[in-house]
Structures
1.
Amino acid sequence: MLLVIDIGNTNIAVGVYRGRELVDDWRIATETRRMPDEYAMLLRDLLAHRGLALTSVRAVILSSVVPTLVTTFKELSERYFRVDPLVVGPGIKTGVRILYENPKEVGADRIVNALAAYRLYGGPNIVVDFGTATTFDAVSAEGDYLGGAIAPGIGISSEALFKFAAKLPHVELLKPKHAIGKNTIASMQAGILFGYVGLVEGLITRFFQEMGKARVIATGGLAEIIARETRIIEVVDQRLTLEGLRLIYELNRGAEGVGE
């Protein structure tokens, strides 16, 4: 079986594949101080919940925007799975031509998403990933990565509002009844949620002006909340990055080790 791991700043997405079938997937908190053995025990328990053992994993691929955790998960893979993990980065085949001034600057997760979006939904497309940062990535009709935009994530934005405005409280990200709030909490919810929808629609509209009409695909923790408030997002796919990692594994090492 193939274990795919996407390490983000806030969460780590984990999935296990049997061939091309996603058996199960999970999200765990990113913790840079956690040791390889600790992560291994977490993975052991998650796999066991699905009736799987650590020994059932025959191959590992990972992408990461947290450099220190690459070493952690490489050590984990070598010690517990007895495999050298494939790490998405320079020199790895992705099937995506990167039309960026410096291709090495593009986060691995963004290229993984671009590949998956193109293979699953065709092109041109725009991938919006709602993570710690919200990334917007443009993919051409030929599957080339054209570039994109990076904005502060919703969590960062709302946390900054609480941190730097002394009288404003923490609020739950819920849809208020009206854009014109009648109390502080409703006003903050309107500003955060509807304001962020405006940011998403505004950036995507500008992308359309530069690349033409494209299908918009959203992924990440808050994708569904934002997608419910705008028609500009056509598809929500929470497993997009996991599928992209599987595809990159097959491009680089074939399907061996992905079966039983």
2.
Amino acid sequence: MQKKISLGLLTLALIASPMLLEDSRSQDGGLPGAYLRIGAGVRGLGAGGAYVAVANDISAGYWNPAGLGLMTVPEIGGMYSLLSLDRQYNYAAGAYPLGSFGTFGVSWINYNVGNVEARNGSGTVTGELANSENALLFSFGKQVAPAFALGANAKMLFHSLAGSSASGMGFDLGARIMPSERFALGASVQNLGATLKWNTTARTESKFPTLARLGVLVKPLNMINFAADYEIIDQQKGQWHVGWEVLMSEYLNLRAGNDNGSITLGASLVNIAAVNNTLELDYGFSKDPVDQTATHRFAFLLRFRPPAYAPMPNSVIGSQKIKPLKKQPAPKFSPGKRLGIQSETFFKASIVEIRPHYWIITLGENQGLNVGMRLELFQALQENETGRAYGKAEAFEVRQRHAIIKILEPSSHVPAVGESILLKLWNTHAEN
């Protein structure tokens, strides 16, 4: 009789725990692996969960591993969710880009519930139950063409409940295409073949539902991102996720969204100097559908300076190959001297590819860029106004529509692939 009661409690907890966890997806909360359908990273969750076409940081390992291929510097970060009913949902990740080889990442997702009373058939309290679910994701993303990236995850799954445990594996696939600097498409499929096998006598198996997402990113202005995702679970009726992100200044981003009917809000303090690196602090708000309480999420993201590794290998611009470039030390400039501006001439360009020490750019209508020109790099705003500084460079190779610029003095700010930049002539003769 006691075995039957224990089995009943185990079954009840298996069904109930994802339902207690589920955030904005209540209709599928009873399916296995519900914690893997919540999302990871406050930036994406604050924008309504519309992040498949946007993801370009470590959280891309969850949303769309292809986005890891857009990363140019190593990153580490984590997220803590403040939930009711003794629930905890945590996330930590790190990723390291290796130039043309792609970017490798590792993510950990954890959900647990404690202090759950265990009762026997007569209702007497016999102790407490604990439930813990974990996923470890090994990710890889690569930009296989100037506007196209692919990625994949292999994930290990673990679940422990009331003295029983289960383990298994699953896979994710992702793709991202950005035909212009104002538009991008992303797609991901999660939980392919994902199954948990329990160590109980019955050797029960829990098969995770397949989750497919298709997303779009539109940038009506340089400082505004609009994104929408359509999500389908096991070929059932889909759900919409819509979000906005506004880059208010160099240090503040605001976002809002609709996560399948639930309003979300978020904010980030970005580009905080941390020694030679930059720190980002994120906050997200949403309503918990379980008890309608406020859900608060906090996250941090640390971006390191670009790593120094092998020189840039072969790359392709259009149909022409670029020969490998030899690694050369960046010139040193005397401290305490001011760099003068030689000319107010600007060249507008769009970033096609970012490699260690070199960027590949597409030139706009402005002509006259020549090999050897020294340049200051800026974010391009409206009416040719400059935003944040991206450092100093030299034109290494110039073709009709494309160019390679060598980064001489990188700044702590790194632009995104597809972003518009302004190149301003720079006089290297310092003035005292």
